[in-house]
Design a protein that fits this description.
Distance between the termini: 17 Å
Number of helices: 10
Low-confidence stretches: 307-314
Shape: globular
Helix content: 25-40%
CATH architecture of the largest domain: 3-Layer(aba) Sandwich
Largest sheet: 5 strands, parallel
Radius of gyration: 19 Å
Mean pLDDT: 91
CATH superfamily of the largest domain: Aspartate/ornithine carbamoyltransferase
Number of strands: 9
């Protein structure tokens, strides 16, 4: 593994090769069974110090990274915007350099500015993992989505995957598009034209504004929430109209494949982009995504930390 993974950081899937993405998924598969043990811990990162620097709200990603670090026996520190010196005017660069002066090994960061993770990776000796930078990328979310698809469908190549919702503001959509296309899936993006980035077809996806048509041939659909906090103006008439036209309910799934998978990165806005009946149905693998996120983040931490080539989990 050491010969295959040569990167100090994980900043996005756009820059990764299909082999690197597959390596992360294979490593995650090795780590998944640890969560089934009575003692859910291995010493792989004993002595390493990992900092979670989350400057935007997060529940799943932050908790998942913290648990992943602890299950690998690393020491962890959590820093939020409200509890940091940002409230006193300190810059991101100075905060990061002060953390490096404390000899940390890995910095996991979520920030509202696209490119912020790259900015820190270029100036720090510590490894940087992007936990979401603005509307740019969210690599570990896409990796856990890929892992879930492979677990449930047995493959990713040639799968038809439809991503539905606020594509314009979604870092999850961008990372998923890079990951899915590099592993050979056929990707369709669906949603209102006002929430569709101009020229997104250049990423190798099919654009569809008719949700019923978009899900008809899909093996899986990944539903995104409307990111009202990133919108400068109203890009659709009302929540009610969005729900009626683009919200996924059991009625819209009537013409879908019988074994279609329904995914969602969370948090869910029930009965807006997805109905409660669908979210809690047998189609849904939303909670599987959460579970798989832990194994994927353990794999990412292990690889960027430069651990031994032979994975020891016994």
């Amino acid at each position: 593994m050491k010969e295959l993974w040569k990167r100090k950081d994980l900043l996005g899937l756009q820059e990764l090769s299909s082999e690197e993405i597959q390596l992360i998924l294979d490593t995650a598969d090795s780590f998944k069974e640890i969560s089934l043990r009575a003692i859910k811990k291995v010493p792989a990162l004993r002595g390493k110090t990992i900092v979670n620097l989350f400057l935007e709200p997060s529940t799943r990603t932050r908790t998942s990274f913290e648990l992943a670090a602890k299950r690998l026996s690393a020491d962890t520190v959590n820093i939020s915007a409200s509890a940091s010196s940002f409230t006193k005017g300190e810059t991101l660069k100075d905060t990061a350099r002060n953390l490096q002066a404390l000899k940390i090994d890995i910095l996991i960061m979520r920030h509202s500015a696209a490119g912020s993770a790259r900015f820190l990776a270029d100036i720090l000796d510590a490894s940087v993992i992007n936990a979401g930078d603005g509307a740019h990328e969210h690599p570990t979310q896409a990796l856990l989505d890929l892992f879930t698809l492979k677990q449930k469908k047995g493959k990713i190549k040639n799968l038809n995957v439809t991503i539905i919702g606020d594509i314009l503001h979604s870092r999850v959509a961008r990372s998923n598009i890079w990951g899915l296309t590099k592993l050979g899936a056929n990707v369709t993006v669906a949603g209102p034209a006002t929430l569709m980035p101009v020229g997104i077809e250049r990423l190798g996806v099919t654009v569809c504004t008719d949700v019923n048509k978009a899900i008809k041939q899909a093996d899986a659909i990944n539903i995104l929430r409307i990111q009202m906090e990133r919108q400068k103006t109203n890009l659709f008439p009302s929540i009610r109209e969005y729900r009626d036209l683009y919200g996924i309910d059991l009625e819209k799934l009537k013409n879908a494949s019988k074994d279609i998978l329904v995914m969602h990165p969370g948090p869910i806005n029930r009965d807006v982009e997805i109905s409660s009946e669908v979210a809690d149905s047998s189609y849904s693998v939303i909670l599987d995504q959460v579970t798989n996120g832990l194994a994927v983040r353990m794999a990412v931490l292990y690889l960027v930390a430069g651990s031994a080539a032979v994975l020891e989990v016994n």
